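G., the chain you wanted modeled:
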Amino acid sequence: MTKKKHPRHFENEAAREAYARAWLIYLGVDPAPERIQEIVPFVDDHEPRSPLAHIANHLIIQGKLPTRKAVNHEQEQRHQKQHAQRVKTLEKLAIDTATVEEARTWVATFVQEHGEGPLWSELGRHLGWASKDIPFGVRELARRGAIRYTPVRRSMRPGRSRWASRTGAGTGVDEAR
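Predicted structure as tokens:
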């Protein structure tokens, strides 16, 4: 029994070449015969529409080969850039212990007065955050246990989620927002 190496199986080399040609056309890259031959070895390296395939597409558009090493390197570069941006945003928001407590208190008061939780934008406005920083700030407050929320509108409440201690995240539903 042989182990399946790649997510797709091509009947023959002509099918691989046809896929490489279609891939180049899809990306708006000239499907010159020599470019097709360069791409053929990589047609079954990544599942279509996956994050790694997206990076491979980006490399091909730039005229580079989407080798596994190149794709993994690009992915690592993107992760480092995202981390640096998160750190920069966190510094800009200045979420300290006082901000955490203010958010918890404000959300509790809002729920008591209105009978429902505030919108993310309302909390962000109260704390003086720019609209583009609000999602990051809300998630950080949840991660620190000041608030919790679900994907349901106006579900924000004060305090730590029951998932926060297990996952390290604030709610366990961050991706839903």
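The two ends are 44 Å apart (CA to CA).

Shout if anything looks off.
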